[in-house]
Structure formats: structure tokens, C-alpha cells
Amino acid sequence: MGPQVKNFDQIKVGDLVVVRYLEALTLELKKGGAGIRERREREDAGTAKPGARPAAAAARQVTVVADVVAVNAKRQTVTLRGPKQTVDLKVRDPKQLKLIKVGDQVEATYTEAVAVSVAPAPVKKK
Fold this sequence. Notes:
Strand content: over 45%
Structural class: mainly beta
Shape: elongated
Low-confidence stretches: none
Oligomer: single chain
Radius of gyration: 22 Å
Mean pLDDT: 90
Number of strands: 6
Order of helices and strands: EEEEEHE
């Protein structure tokens, strides 16, 4: 391990390295579309405190506000124009599709995070 791994001396033979990964997407319909098309990104990271078991985490979140420029009920798709590109999205729930109109906006937030930690070795039964 390189010097960026803090508290390395806390690791013992048999300890477990635990990796957790999270990925989430939320969509919010904004009726009337009064906002500005935009893309925002945010990142954060952290590591273990001195003396604690080694651990680190990092997260990234991207939020995009896009205009609804077309709704195709027959194909069950919505066309969204964001600040950088235009995409067609499939809307599987017909009831939700009926709520969306040209001129509305959609705010999509994509979050991904990873955490790595070291857990004590399991106690062996005798």
C-alpha cells in the first residue's frame, strides 16, 4: 500500500476489507418549466481519523435540469433537452406519462458513492 493509506498499522491478519457501493437516480417533474436548463456537479471525500481503522469514502452527485420538448404516448417516450444534449427516455408507467407535458421540466439527480473500510477478523468458534 502507498502512503495515502492512513492508519495502515491498524490492519491485522484476517481482517476483512469491506467495500460498499451506492448508485441512485431520482427524477422530479417540475410543471410549467420556469427554471433554467443547467448541470451541477458535486464531489466529496473523506478518510479515517488518526488512530482509527483505515477507511475512506467518496461520493459524486450530478443534477441536470432539462426541458420536456416532446411526449410520444404511442412509444411511451419523453424527449428531454438538457444543457449539453437531448435524450429520449422510456416512461414505463402510462399514468406517469400522462402527467408530463411539453414545456415542463425534469430535474434528474444521479448519485454514486463508494466506501471502503476494514472490519475486525471474525472470531473463530472453538
